[in-house]
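Predict the 3D structure for this chain.
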Amino acid sequence: MYNVAREKSDGSRIQYPRGLPGDRGNRAQMCIAGFIAILLIIGGVVVNHKEGLGEVIMYEGLAVGVTTSVLLHVALRTFLLAEELHHIPGRYPDKLCAAWKAYTFNMKTLCTSSISAIVVLLIWTLFQNPYVYLWSKGLIAHNVCYLSGFYFSKLIQMEYSTVHVSVQIDKMNSLDYGSGMAYNFFYGYLRLVLPEFGTQSVKGIKKRIETFINKHRLSDSAFPVKKLFILIPKSLYIPTDLKDVSTDWPDDKCWMDAAMSLEDQVFDRAGVKQRLYKNSVYKIKNRDSPGAQPVYVVAEGATPLKTCYDVINGDPKMSRVFKDHQHDIILSFYKTLRDIIRDSDDCRDLCEIIYYVDTDDNKKRINVARIILERIQELTGRDPVQRH
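Done. Predicted structure below.
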């Protein structure tokens, strides 16, 4: 029998052969729980040896340890919040939202911390300060309570919060979802349609733009930047036709129209024969300068982000998770894609990435044609809407 992953007939789980990586179980959690039990037993034995069985009953090491861990995590989240407050409105609409993302605990933490706090307060009220009490029981019994509290916090994932996950995404060294999309986008698409391959049948983006200019008898200045413009909007929204986001609200006159497409690129990929890759050319008409000639560009949205947008708005199971970290995903995608392209000798000068805020303060769509024209002016050093 071949080594193939097989799903059980009842759909309860998947059986993985020895040569394939499988799902992780709960062995680590069981080991942590066992270690906590051992620590508490050691503390109880020490107290019993010194004080007797009655004192063991009063030994509340885990409650104090858990309460201390909660207080330390609150302090840590305060430190993280100090950084997050500098990312308004980029990541959060206001300070309250940032604080909520930083201080939210999961349900296990809320339940256990509440119970532990009640126990600690009862001991403090009925007997004495529990921290002084534990210190009086000796170094071993004293440290056991904090060790058990620390490992218990790991067992229930006390550190988990939206901000904590965002920080972890930044430290994943391109293994996060946004970076993964960027690598797939580059090696599965951009590296195929941008550079020259040295054959007549496979042309790079520049040659296909030149062919388009000659075919439609355009002046060279009508196509001022011979690159592929990739749009990365903050909201992830990319319409089927960029014409739909090229108006100045409330004016309904569009600045962009899809002219035609460049020559198709055809490749055999992953078992798919004669796979087509297309790039659309848009004609931009500056409505502020009625006498100016139109400008032509090759522009498109980053398609992986369109997929991410569909996941957020179409998958109830994952939508909340992706919404919580949407800005982290987009930022990671942009930074990784920028770095990949900069490091590529073949594609470095063939692509222009535009990462932008696509809504104004009233949540109305920004005219993306204006943004593209502004970038063209930055690249060429001249006004792209002047008469050609």
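The longest helix spans residues 27-50.
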